[in-house]
Amino acid sequence: MRKIISLTTLLLLALLFSCSGDDSPEKDKIPPTTPKLISHLGDTGDDPIIVNGVTISLNDDNNGIDTVPDGNWIKVPWEKFVDNDLSHVKVYRYSESDPEPKLINTVPASEDYYLDQSSLVEREWYYYYIELYDASGNFSVSDTVSYAILAKSILSSPVEGETINQDTAKLCWERGDSQTNKFRILLWDNQTGDLVFSYPYYYTPNEEFPSPPEFPFPRLNPRPPSGQVFRWRIDAFDDDPEHNLEMGSESKERTLIIQ
């Protein structure tokens, strides 16, 4: 009988010590610093803006949530995380036609944006937020940002890599849809990546069957030498009065060579 009691006591002690570590007072219970998504600040070619007292020239890397040239996708960036024990990020999305937030992906906390390559619907507003997790399983929830994509403009000429006469060439494209009339023509020095030309273009045809939009190759100063390579793109915009916001798209990019 004494042996049975001793054995029972040992089992109880073993169980007690095995459970005592589950709620260690040293376990991290503090959630990460609240993450902050970057809303749409503007577009490449806009006038510089001031953010936190600093003047910023907007480009595809720093203008916040936006579409991208490579597909009908939305890029969702966030500010740099401040904690050093982070694990992963859960990305959630909802829309007005599907208002229940859904987890769409999980990415490492080392990423600084998420590229939503889902089959997104044009002119539909999508809303995003994230949950940021640390190594202990604590998490915090970000704010929410939104964007709506338009149908991409389709570049028609010059074709990719074409050599052009800068005095006579025209940049031509097809509208992605019949509702979009506001565009921006963008031209970069392909070697330096510098934006050398940006021009807002409003397409207001009067004919029933109008010609596609076109724009003469810009007169650049200094005049580009023969062989210089440029990269060009057409961005499209349309106002959404209901949301008091602007929707947008970016065409695929092409290069051209000066004759």
Characterization of this structure:
By secondary structure, this protein is mainly beta. It is built from one helix and 19 strands. The protein has two domains: 49-147, Sandwich (Immunoglobulin-like), CATH 2.60.40; 154-258, Immunoglobulin-like. Strands 12, 14, 15, 17, 18 and 19 form a six-stranded mixed beta sheet that branches. A hairpin with a 5-residue loop joins strand 14 (182-189) and strand 15. The longest helix is centred in the first third of the chain and has 18 residues, at 2-19. The N and C termini lie far apart (104 Å). The model is unreliable at 1-23 (pLDDT under 50).
Write the SSE topology.
Layout lengths: L1 H18 L29 E3 L2 E3 L9 E3 L2 E7 L8 E10 L6 E7 L4 E4 L9 E9 L4 E3 L3 E3 L6 E4 L4 E3 L5 E5 L7 E8 L5 E8 L11 E3 L12 E12 L4 E6 L3 E5 L1
Parallel strand pairs: 12-19
Antiparallel strand pairs: 1-2, 3-4, 4-7, 5-6, 5-8, 8-9, 8-10, 11-13, 13-16, 14-15, 14-17, 17-18, 17-19
